[in-house]
Amino acid sequence: MNRKKFTWQHYISILLIGGTLIIFFLYLYPQNRQLESLRKEMAIIVRDLRERKEAIARARREAEILKQLEADYQQVRQQVVLLNERLPEKKEIPRLVQQLSDLSRSFNLELISLRPYPLIEAGDYLRLPLEINLGGSYRSLGEYLKKVEGLQRLVSLEEMEIRGEPQELPRLVIRLMLVAYAQRKEGEIFGSTK
User: Fold this and answer.
1) Tell me, what DSSP letter sits at residue 64?
2) How many CA atoms lie less than 13 Å away from 26 in the CB half-sphere?
3) 99 and 78, same domain (yes or no)
4) Which of 8, 42, 82, 181 has a 20 to 30 Å separation from 135 between CA atoms?
5) What is the pLDDT of residues 137-184, one digit of tens each?
6) 3-state secondary structure of 126
7) In whole angstroms, what is the distance from residue 178 CA to residue 108 CA?
8) Straight-line distance from the first to the last Cα atom of the chain, in angstroms, rounded to the nearest whole number
9) What is the Cα–Cα distance from 111 to 108, expressed in whole angstroms?
10) Whole-model pTM?
């Protein structure tokens, strides 16, 4: 009696357990391995996607920096062109000296002396120091300096000394140390051609 009960219940249990094992090993286990393999591939793809997004963001930032650098380059290039226009060539310096002399007369300043010093090489350009001694009123001097500042050519005021003798007032004696700049090579400055 015990044997009949054992066989019928056990066979069903063995069939259920065996069926479950067959389903697990034939269907679920390969599916689980395939699913695990897909998870690993997906993790690799997600990591690769994240790296590519970071690379794209870096490239965009670098592109913005490049655009700004290009704009800065164009601005500097325009400034060099303007500077080229303001720097006379070496052969034009005598004309610039004459222009400074003529300018003093136009403001009723007496040109006491105008002494150019030797040219000084200063990198890509030349410096021509000029000592100018003028006699005249303070107002005339101001107008003269304003006009010198507005010259097309690049001239800077490095020193200024104003003296006045009590018996000659309002006439003043004015000593100016100006520096005119010129291109070192004809037609070229800062490595760019005119």
Assistant:
1) H
2) 6
3) no
4) 181
5) 888 888 988 888 887 777 788 898 988 877 777 788 889 898 887 776
6) strand
7) 19
8) 119
9) 9
10) 0.50
